[in-house]
Amino acid sequence: MADVVAGLAVFGAVIAVGWLLVRTRAVPADADGVLTRVCFFAATPALLVTTLSRADLTAVLSRSTAVAVAAELTAIVSAWCLHRLVLRRPTAEATIGALASGYVNAANLGIPVAVLVLGDAATIAPILLLQLLVLTPATFTVLDAVTRRGNPSRLATLTVPLRNPLLWGVVAGTAANLGGVDLKEWGGGYPAQGLGMLGRVAVPLMMLALGMSLAGAPRPLRNPAPEEASPSPQGSPAQSARHGKDRQGQEPPAAEAGSEAHEIDTAGGRPPRVEEEPAHGARSTSQRGAGRLSGLWLAVGWKLAVMPGLAVVVGTAAGLSGGQLLAPVVTAALPTAQNVFMYASRYGAAKDLARDAVLLTTAGFVPVVLLAAALLH
Fold this sequence. Notes:
Layout: H1 2-23, H2 31-53, H3 57-60, H4 63-86, H5 91-102, H6 110-118, H7 125-146, H8 154-158, H9 165-178, H10 190-214, H11 237-243, H12 285-317, H13 322-333, H14 338-347, H15 351-376
């Protein structure tokens, strides 16, 4: 427990440094965007290659990681049913609500937390693969269909994960491991030295970027606006998150280093419009606002309480206990990923919910991790 607290204290101290750098204007307010891109395109892929190339893959593909995957899938599916059938949200909004309830920040926070709390970044690799290869294409398919987007470049959208550097970092590291390649002996050891240098800066850069983004994070809205804003078709999703103070306000706090939304194309003129209406007919503005606020608190509660609880139940049923059970519970407690806001912005659905869920779960996941460590470590 003391080790976990110490690790999280270091974690918080580096975040605080990033926050202070922006608040004291030592760096530009948008400096986190630059650090995030460095992590996304260079440092984090290098860390994944070096970590997975020497990892015990039998430990990575273990019951513990299977429990983490099962908990995430169960949380997302069950949350979708609640948002759609109980709160009666349109399919697009229910999809964003479900992702806000279970799609974890596996790269920007998952890797540092895995290193500091669990001692090994390799444990997050299966979750990254699940989100990049399964959840992201499935989300695009559903949102494309229900928003009647009709984008002729749908194939390019669905192949976004294949253009993600994190995916290829996982693939390269796993291939080197399975092929018995010792990176220190390959190419005279110089490539390994370069990858090692890049990988070592990944975690501190992620934490600094998170602190910088938190310096300008908005407060969650108490009374969500009655209508969702339409996403701007201009610029990258990262720019939309940083500068998209269109009708709704500002961006969520944590620009995820693993944001595959960097690659989403924004061609196509007028943004998509959600045409589906709730099944029970038109409602007043106050009713819609109350429904969205209920959706927000459902997503936050599901992410911070129900999903870790599912990991405990599934893990216990699988025979895990103590430290073995801690890994999937910590993974389940990770906050909602920035990607969810990117998708909400791209498709014009539940932007308020996605943005505020990222902020609230980022602020609230540390007590959950500490509680899990106290009970299971």
